[in-house]
Amino acid sequence: MTHLLILGGTTEANALAKAVAEQGVSATYSYAGRVDNPRPQPLPVRVGGFGGAQGLAQYLWDHAITHVIDATHPFAAQMSRNAIAACRDTGLPLAALTRPAWTAQDGDRWQHVPDIGGAVAALSGLAQRVFLAVGRMHLEDFAAQPQHHYLLRLVDEPGELPLPNCDVVVSRGPFTEADDRALMQRHDIELVVSKNAGGSGARAKLDAARALGLPVLMIDRPILPQRHELTSVTQVLDWLAHSGVNLGV
Ligand SMILES: NC(=O)c1ccc[n+]([C@@H]2O[C@H](COP(=O)([O-])OP(=O)(O)OC[C@H]3O[C@@H](n4cnc5c(N)ncnc54)[C@H](OP(=O)(O)O)[C@@H]3O)[C@@H](O)[C@H]2O)c1
Asked: What is the bridge-based pairing of β-strands 4-7 and 67-70?
Protein backbone atom coordinates (compact mmCIF):
# COMPACT_ATOMS: atom_id res chain seq x y z
CA MET A 1 0.00 0.00 0.00
CA THR A 2 1.29 3.43 -0.97
CA HIS A 3 2.06 5.83 1.85
CA LEU A 4 4.04 9.01 1.14
CA LEU A 5 6.12 11.01 3.56
CA ILE A 6 6.22 14.72 2.67
CA LEU A 7 8.99 16.63 4.43
CA GLY A 8 7.42 20.04 4.61
CA GLY A 9 7.50 23.52 6.05
CA THR A 10 7.30 25.39 2.74
CA THR A 11 4.69 26.83 0.37
CA GLU A 12 5.63 24.13 -2.14
CA ALA A 13 5.06 21.36 0.41
CA ASN A 14 1.66 22.84 1.24
CA ALA A 15 0.68 22.89 -2.44
CA LEU A 16 1.83 19.29 -2.80
CA ALA A 17 -0.13 18.22 0.30
CA LYS A 18 -3.28 19.75 -1.19
CA ALA A 19 -2.77 17.98 -4.53
CA VAL A 20 -1.96 14.64 -2.90
CA ALA A 21 -5.04 14.88 -0.66
CA GLU A 22 -7.19 15.71 -3.70
CA GLN A 23 -5.82 12.63 -5.48
CA GLY A 24 -6.78 10.49 -2.48
CA VAL A 25 -3.21 9.28 -1.96
CA SER A 26 -2.30 8.20 1.55
CA ALA A 27 0.44 10.46 2.97
CA THR A 28 1.87 12.05 6.11
CA TYR A 29 3.14 15.63 6.26
CA SER A 30 6.13 16.28 8.50
CA TYR A 31 6.94 19.57 10.23
CA ALA A 32 10.17 20.23 12.12
CA GLY A 33 8.18 22.09 14.77
CA ARG A 34 9.97 25.43 14.44
CA VAL A 35 6.90 27.71 14.38
CA ASP A 36 4.22 28.07 17.04
CA ASN A 37 1.16 27.56 14.86
CA PRO A 38 2.02 25.64 11.71
CA ARG A 39 -0.50 25.82 8.92
CA PRO A 40 -3.14 23.07 9.06
CA GLN A 41 -2.79 20.48 6.30
CA PRO A 42 -5.34 18.31 4.50
CA LEU A 43 -3.20 15.26 5.46
CA PRO A 44 -2.18 13.67 8.76
CA VAL A 45 0.63 15.75 10.28
CA ARG A 46 3.57 14.72 12.47
CA VAL A 47 5.84 17.23 14.18
CA GLY A 48 9.49 17.10 15.28
CA GLY A 49 12.84 15.69 14.24
CA PHE A 50 13.30 11.99 13.46
CA GLY A 51 16.67 11.63 15.19
CA GLY A 52 19.09 11.99 12.28
CA ALA A 53 19.31 9.86 9.15
CA GLN A 54 19.11 6.65 11.18
CA GLY A 55 16.04 7.84 13.05
CA LEU A 56 14.42 8.74 9.75
CA ALA A 57 15.25 5.33 8.26
CA GLN A 58 13.63 3.70 11.30
CA TYR A 59 10.57 5.93 10.93
CA LEU A 60 10.25 5.01 7.25
CA TRP A 61 10.37 1.33 8.14
CA ASP A 62 8.03 1.58 11.17
CA HIS A 63 5.40 3.53 9.21
CA ALA A 64 5.64 1.49 6.00
CA ILE A 65 6.50 4.57 3.96
CA THR A 66 6.75 3.82 0.24
CA HIS A 67 7.94 7.17 -1.18
CA VAL A 68 9.64 10.23 0.33
CA ILE A 69 9.23 13.74 -1.07
CA ASP A 70 11.62 16.27 0.36
CA ALA A 71 9.81 19.58 -0.03
CA THR A 72 11.80 21.38 2.65
CA HIS A 73 13.36 24.81 2.27
CA PRO A 74 16.57 24.99 0.17
CA PHE A 75 18.46 25.97 3.34
CA ALA A 76 17.15 22.98 5.33
CA ALA A 77 20.28 21.13 4.24
CA GLN A 78 20.59 18.78 7.20
CA MET A 79 17.08 17.42 6.70
CA SER A 80 17.74 17.01 2.98
CA ARG A 81 21.04 15.18 3.59
CA ASN A 82 19.31 12.91 6.09
CA ALA A 83 16.55 12.14 3.58
CA ILE A 84 19.13 11.19 0.94
CA ALA A 85 20.98 8.91 3.38
CA ALA A 86 17.84 7.30 4.83
CA CYS A 87 16.34 6.59 1.39
CA ARG A 88 19.65 5.17 0.18
CA ASP A 89 19.81 2.87 3.23
CA THR A 90 16.18 1.74 2.99
CA GLY A 91 16.06 1.62 -0.81
CA LEU A 92 13.01 3.90 -0.92
CA PRO A 93 12.42 6.29 -3.83
CA LEU A 94 13.14 9.93 -3.00
CA ALA A 95 12.27 13.05 -4.95
CA ALA A 96 12.99 16.63 -3.95
CA LEU A 97 10.46 19.35 -4.75
CA THR A 98 12.66 22.41 -5.17
CA ARG A 99 12.42 25.94 -6.50
CA PRO A 100 14.98 27.60 -8.74
CA ALA A 101 17.40 29.98 -7.04
CA TRP A 102 16.91 33.71 -7.60
CA THR A 103 19.24 35.30 -10.12
CA ALA A 104 20.26 38.96 -10.23
CA GLN A 105 18.53 41.24 -12.72
CA ASP A 106 19.59 44.59 -14.18
CA GLY A 107 19.75 47.10 -11.37
CA ASP A 108 20.40 44.54 -8.63
CA ARG A 109 23.41 45.24 -6.41
CA TRP A 110 24.09 41.78 -4.96
CA GLN A 111 27.20 40.70 -3.13
CA HIS A 112 27.28 36.89 -2.93
CA VAL A 113 28.47 35.11 0.20
CA PRO A 114 28.68 31.32 0.52
CA ASP A 115 26.97 30.90 3.87
CA ILE A 116 25.81 32.59 7.08
CA GLY A 117 29.41 32.89 8.30
CA GLY A 118 30.27 34.72 5.09
CA ALA A 119 27.40 37.14 5.65
CA VAL A 120 28.54 37.82 9.22
CA ALA A 121 32.10 38.46 8.02
CA ALA A 122 30.87 40.78 5.25
CA LEU A 123 29.06 42.86 7.86
CA SER A 124 32.25 43.92 9.62
CA GLY A 125 32.69 47.66 9.31
CA LEU A 126 30.76 50.78 10.14
CA ALA A 127 27.30 50.69 11.62
CA GLN A 128 24.46 50.50 9.12
CA ARG A 129 20.71 49.98 9.18
CA VAL A 130 20.36 46.38 8.00
CA PHE A 131 17.24 44.43 7.02
CA LEU A 132 18.32 40.99 8.25
CA ALA A 133 15.82 38.74 6.46
CA VAL A 134 17.26 35.35 7.41
CA GLY A 135 14.67 34.04 9.87
CA ARG A 136 15.16 33.32 13.55
CA MET A 137 17.56 30.38 13.47
CA HIS A 138 20.88 32.12 12.90
CA LEU A 139 20.46 35.41 14.71
CA GLU A 140 23.12 34.47 17.30
CA ASP A 141 25.74 34.45 14.54
CA PHE A 142 25.03 38.11 13.80
CA ALA A 143 25.66 39.04 17.44
CA ALA A 144 29.33 39.13 16.31
CA GLN A 145 28.43 42.38 14.47
CA PRO A 146 26.49 44.26 17.16
CA GLN A 147 27.30 47.72 15.74
CA HIS A 148 24.44 47.59 13.22
CA HIS A 149 20.81 48.41 13.71
CA TYR A 150 18.90 45.36 12.51
CA LEU A 151 15.37 45.10 11.20
CA LEU A 152 14.10 41.52 11.68
CA ARG A 153 11.00 39.97 10.17
CA LEU A 154 9.96 36.83 12.02
CA VAL A 155 7.09 34.35 11.81
CA ASP A 156 6.52 34.31 15.58
CA GLU A 157 6.95 36.84 18.37
CA PRO A 158 10.56 36.23 19.48
CA GLY A 159 11.74 35.82 23.03
CA GLU A 160 14.96 37.51 24.06
CA LEU A 161 17.09 38.44 21.06
CA PRO A 162 20.89 38.23 20.81
CA LEU A 163 21.13 41.57 18.94
CA PRO A 164 21.36 44.74 21.03
CA ASN A 165 19.90 47.08 18.40
CA CYS A 166 16.90 45.80 16.54
CA ASP A 167 13.30 46.30 15.48
CA VAL A 168 11.09 43.28 14.94
CA VAL A 169 8.19 42.87 12.55
CA VAL A 170 6.13 39.71 13.07
CA SER A 171 4.61 38.54 9.81
CA ARG A 172 4.29 35.35 7.76
CA GLY A 173 4.06 36.72 4.25
CA PRO A 174 3.76 36.40 1.35
CA PHE A 175 4.91 40.00 0.92
CA THR A 176 4.47 42.54 -1.87
CA GLU A 177 7.17 44.75 -3.38
CA ALA A 178 5.21 47.90 -2.45
CA ASP A 179 4.85 46.82 1.18
CA ASP A 180 8.52 45.84 1.46
CA ARG A 181 9.62 49.10 -0.17
CA ALA A 182 7.52 51.05 2.35
CA LEU A 183 8.91 48.93 5.21
CA MET A 184 12.50 49.58 4.15
CA GLN A 185 11.88 53.29 3.71
CA ARG A 186 10.17 53.53 7.09
CA HIS A 187 13.21 51.94 8.73
CA ASP A 188 15.82 53.84 6.64
CA ILE A 189 17.34 50.53 5.52
CA GLU A 190 20.78 50.75 3.89
CA LEU A 191 21.51 47.05 3.29
CA VAL A 192 19.44 43.85 2.92
CA VAL A 193 20.72 40.41 3.97
CA SER A 194 18.85 37.54 2.29
CA LYS A 195 19.16 33.79 1.83
CA ASN A 196 18.78 32.74 -1.80
CA ALA A 197 15.53 30.94 -1.05
CA GLY A 198 13.98 31.24 -4.52
CA GLY A 199 10.23 31.21 -5.07
CA SER A 200 7.79 34.08 -5.13
CA GLY A 201 6.71 34.46 -1.49
CA ALA A 202 9.91 36.09 -0.21
CA ARG A 203 11.17 37.74 -3.42
CA ALA A 204 9.47 41.08 -2.74
CA LYS A 205 12.34 42.36 -0.58
CA LEU A 206 14.76 41.92 -3.50
CA ASP A 207 12.46 43.77 -5.88
CA ALA A 208 12.08 46.49 -3.26
CA ALA A 209 15.86 46.69 -2.76
CA ARG A 210 16.34 47.08 -6.53
CA ALA A 211 13.69 49.82 -6.69
CA LEU A 212 15.42 51.67 -3.85
CA GLY A 213 18.93 51.07 -5.23
CA LEU A 214 19.95 49.21 -2.06
CA PRO A 215 22.74 46.62 -1.89
CA VAL A 216 21.89 43.02 -0.97
CA LEU A 217 24.14 40.53 0.78
CA MET A 218 22.95 37.32 -0.90
CA ILE A 219 23.67 34.09 0.96
CA ASP A 220 24.09 31.33 -1.62
CA ARG A 221 22.44 27.94 -1.17
CA PRO A 222 24.11 25.04 0.56
CA ILE A 223 25.35 22.41 -1.89
CA LEU A 224 23.64 19.01 -1.54
CA PRO A 225 24.57 15.57 -2.81
CA GLN A 226 22.94 14.63 -6.08
CA ARG A 227 19.26 13.69 -5.86
CA HIS A 228 16.21 13.50 -8.09
CA GLU A 229 14.94 17.10 -8.25
CA LEU A 230 11.52 18.21 -9.49
CA THR A 231 10.28 21.77 -9.67
CA SER A 232 6.48 21.56 -9.68
CA VAL A 233 3.66 19.69 -8.02
CA THR A 234 2.65 18.34 -11.44
CA GLN A 235 6.12 16.86 -11.89
CA VAL A 236 5.87 15.16 -8.50
CA LEU A 237 2.46 13.68 -9.39
CA ASP A 238 3.91 12.42 -12.70
CA TRP A 239 6.87 10.91 -10.86
CA LEU A 240 4.49 9.15 -8.44
CA ALA A 241 2.36 7.85 -11.30
CA HIS A 242 5.47 6.51 -13.03
CA SER A 243 6.49 4.84 -9.76
CA GLY A 244 3.24 2.90 -9.79
CA VAL A 245 1.17 5.09 -7.44
CA ASN A 246 -2.52 5.01 -8.24
CA LEU A 247 -3.64 8.64 -8.50
CA GLY A 248 -7.20 9.86 -8.50
CA VAL A 249 -10.18 8.42 -6.65
N1 LIG B 1 16.15 27.11 6.77
C2 LIG B 1 15.28 28.03 6.38
O3 LIG B 1 15.65 29.17 5.98
C4 LIG B 1 13.80 27.72 6.35
C5 LIG B 1 12.90 28.68 5.84
C6 LIG B 1 11.55 28.38 5.78
C7 LIG B 1 11.09 27.17 6.22
N8 LIG B 1 11.99 26.25 6.70
C9 LIG B 1 11.44 24.95 7.16
O10 LIG B 1 11.76 24.84 8.53
C11 LIG B 1 12.07 23.49 8.86
C12 LIG B 1 13.42 23.43 9.54
O13 LIG B 1 14.40 23.99 8.70
P14 LIG B 1 15.94 23.98 9.13
O15 LIG B 1 16.67 24.85 8.19
O16 LIG B 1 16.03 24.19 10.59
O17 LIG B 1 16.29 22.46 8.79
P18 LIG B 1 17.68 21.65 8.96
O19 LIG B 1 18.70 22.53 9.59
O20 LIG B 1 18.00 21.01 7.68
O21 LIG B 1 17.21 20.52 9.95
C22 LIG B 1 17.69 20.33 11.25
C23 LIG B 1 16.92 19.19 11.84
O24 LIG B 1 15.54 19.56 12.04
C25 LIG B 1 14.71 18.44 11.77
N26 LIG B 1 13.83 18.75 10.64
C27 LIG B 1 14.02 19.68 9.66
N28 LIG B 1 13.00 19.70 8.83
C29 LIG B 1 12.12 18.76 9.26
C30 LIG B 1 10.85 18.32 8.82
N31 LIG B 1 10.23 18.87 7.76
N32 LIG B 1 10.26 17.32 9.51
C33 LIG B 1 10.84 16.78 10.61
N34 LIG B 1 12.04 17.17 11.09
C35 LIG B 1 12.67 18.16 10.42
C36 LIG B 1 15.63 17.28 11.51
O37 LIG B 1 15.90 16.72 12.79
P38 LIG B 1 16.35 15.19 12.98
O39 LIG B 1 17.77 15.11 12.52
O40 LIG B 1 16.15 14.94 14.43
O41 LIG B 1 15.43 14.37 12.11
C42 LIG B 1 16.86 17.96 10.96
O43 LIG B 1 18.04 17.20 11.04
C44 LIG B 1 12.00 22.69 7.56
O45 LIG B 1 10.76 22.05 7.55
C46 LIG B 1 12.09 23.75 6.47
O47 LIG B 1 11.39 23.38 5.31
C48 LIG B 1 13.32 26.50 6.78
From this structure: parallel
